[in-house]
Every structure is written in structure tokens, then in C-alpha cells.
Amino acid sequence: MAFSILGTGSAVPSKVVTNSELSIFLETDDEWISSRTGISERRVLTSESLTDLAAKAAERALESANIAASELDFILCPTLRGDQLFPSLSSRVSGRIGASCPALDINAACSGFVFALDVARAYFAAGQARRMLIVCAEAMSRLTDWTDRSTTVLFGDAAGAVVLGPGEGPLALRLTTSCNEEWLVSDVPSGNSPFAPYSPGTFLRMNGREVFKFAVSAIDKDVRLLCEQAGTSPEDVDYYLLHQANLRIIEAARSRLALPPERFPTNIQHYGNTSSASIPLLLDEQVRAGNMQKGQLLFLSAFGAGLSTGSCLLRWEA
Ligand code: UT7
């Protein structure tokens, strides 16, 4: 026995930043950004904290699952960085929602949601949890260099959450990590130890072309592997909820599988790449739009820094 998704929630900052607004201070334009990435606008944190956003997404997920925070056995927060290094984002979310269970942050970059699902799977399988909350929350606007047009235009801030209970899922799940310290990197500042050289840290840097190629082949490989493992075929999957990093990556993965676009819902147009929050944000949107039916097959797939990948095939049980 493992898990099923009992409820979903999400939250985005109120501030919308359009491509045209970016072109006021960056040498870029709406045409380049939308044709190369599919992104029209993104949300950016202003006065809210990331904890505010994460707690809002968590509360919405709890409400849709009809579960009280006091019933939770564990909280997992995939994030690249919370509002503070410590206490962890998950501790702060736990305080905001009134939970009293253990809480842990996970950093698997954009693949964090699927990594958290795998950790949850192990807890459910071991009988160590009956109710778990996963909240992915990312403040990408704090990690990118706002003078670098090649990266800043791609990202946005958001939080997405799910509440899990015992169930039949997942049918198959696969994680990979292969160390690459060049293609997608950000360095933390050193401390002021008199025994080590000082380094101010860096903003996010990326080799977009290499990550693009890596992503397309990783998705394709995982779809075939996981479908085979679960004794099903890519044609049987109702929805592919892929990491929203670039519409052209999604389109390339779709065309390799030769499946219709309706099976690949997207929202990157409005939010950009929100790292680990990307898939739960899209999932929540689909659930609230009434697009998920009990028994449907979903394929989730993410990729990101590490390099990491995480894919999961599951049947919608709610
Ligand atoms: O969560 C996982 C993280 N990342 C990803 O998934 C990213 C994957 N990669 C990508 O999405 C694409 O590679 C990008 C969108 C990042 C870049 O698209 P591209 O088609 O690979 O463009 P490019 O990097 O080859 O750049 C083409 C040109 C360059 O100019 P030159 O050298 O040809 O003169 C860039 O300087 O486009 C220029 N450029 C821009 N121009 C206008 C780069 N960024 C911009 C910009 N506006 N914002």
C-alpha cells in the first residue's frame, strides 16, 4: 500500500510581470520570450513572504482534502531556498497552519515534487504515515540575476501543495541524479571565516541548450520505461503533467510520443518556470477546472539542477 492524492492547492503572488515590462530594463522583447519559451507573464513576490505563499497553498490543499492540519503525520517542503536558512520553510509552514508533526525541507531543484512523492511513498509503505502534506514553494525571483536576460525571463514564483492519504499509487516512479556542476548552478556566499577565502555567491547560471536536450530525452525515456514497468502504454495515459520549463520542451516530448496536445496541459504562459512548484501548481489548476476524473492515468515528469529527474505514473483516485 502507498498513497493517493486526497487534495490539491496552490498560491501565486499577486504581482504579474509581463514580458513587455521586462523589456523596459532588459534587452529583450515579448516576441523572443514567447516564441522561444511560450511564456507571456510570470508572478513575482513583492511584499508577501514565501512562507505566506506556501501556507496558503497548504491550507487550500487541506481544505480540498477535508483534512485538519492536526491530522498530518508529516510535512515535506521541496524548495531551493525558504525565507530563512533556518528554521526550515517546512517548520514555518507547520507553524502557520497549526500542525504539530515533523517537517522537513527537500532540495531536488525542479524535480523536488516527484522526489517528495517518493519519500512519501516509503512512509506510507512502512506504515509510518496516514496523512502527509507536500508543499513545493519557490521564490525564483530571489535566485535569478535581474540583469541577465538569458535566465531571468524564464522563471516565476509560486507554491503548489498536495495532501496524501493511503492508496494504490504510484503505479511506477523513477528518480535520477547525475552530478553536473556546470549546466544549472548557483553558489551560496561563503561565511566570514578567517580560515577560508571569501566568496560573495552567485545568481543562477544555466546552459539552456544542454538542459533543453537533456530534458527532452529524459522525459521520453521515463515515459517509455514507466509505462512498460506498469504494463501500460504511452497512448493510455490521459494527461502528461510535465515540468513547465519551456513550451518547446513539452512540444518536443509530445511530438516524440506522437500524442495529441490535449493530453499535455500547460500553464507556463502565465507563470513561467516555477521549479518544484510547477507540477503541483498545474495539477491543482487541472483539478479545480474539473479536468481530472477518477481512474484516469497521469504521468508527471520533472527535471532540473543536479542534474535530477523525477517521473511518476499514477491513477487519479480522488
Ligand atoms: O527547470 C529547468 C531549467 N531550465 C530549462 O529547462 C531551460 C532549457 N532551455 C531553454 O529553455 C532554452 O535553451 C532557452 C529558452 C534558455 C534559450 O533558448 P535557445 O533557443 O536555446 O536560445 P540560445 O540560448 O541559443 O540563444 C539564442 C540567442 C542568443 O543570441 P546570439 O548568441 O544568437 O546572438 C542569446 O544571446 O538569443 C539571445 N537571447 C535573448 N534574446 C532576447 C538569450 N536570451 C534572450 C532574451 N531576449 N531574453
Please, could you describe this protein's structure?
With 318 residues, the protein is α/β, with parallel strands linked by helices. It has 2 domains: 166 residues, Peroxisomal Thiolase, Chain A, domain 1; 137 residues, Peroxisomal Thiolase, Chain A, domain 1 (3-Layer(aba) Sandwich). Helix content is 33%, strand content 23%. The protein is built from 10 helices and 13 strands. The strands form 4 sheets. It has a 5-stranded mixed beta sheet with strand order 1-7-6-4-5. A hairpin with a 3-residue loop joins strand 12 and strand 13. Helix 3 packs across helix 4 and helix 7 runs parallel beside helix 8. It is globular and about 50 Å long. The protein starts with a strand and ends with a strand. The model has no long low-confidence stretch (mean pLDDT 97).
Would you count the extended β strands for me? 13
**What is the CATH class of the largest domain?**
Alpha Beta
Question: Termini distance?
Answer: 16 Å
Would you tell me the overall average pLDDT? 97
Structural class: alpha/beta
The rough form would be described as globular
* Poorly predicted ranges: none
Give the strand order of the largest sheet, numbering strands 1, 2, ... along the chain: 1-7-6-4-5
**CATH superfamily assignment of the largest domain?**
Thiolase/Chalcone synthase
Helix-strand string:
EEHHEHEHEHEHEEEEHEHHHEE
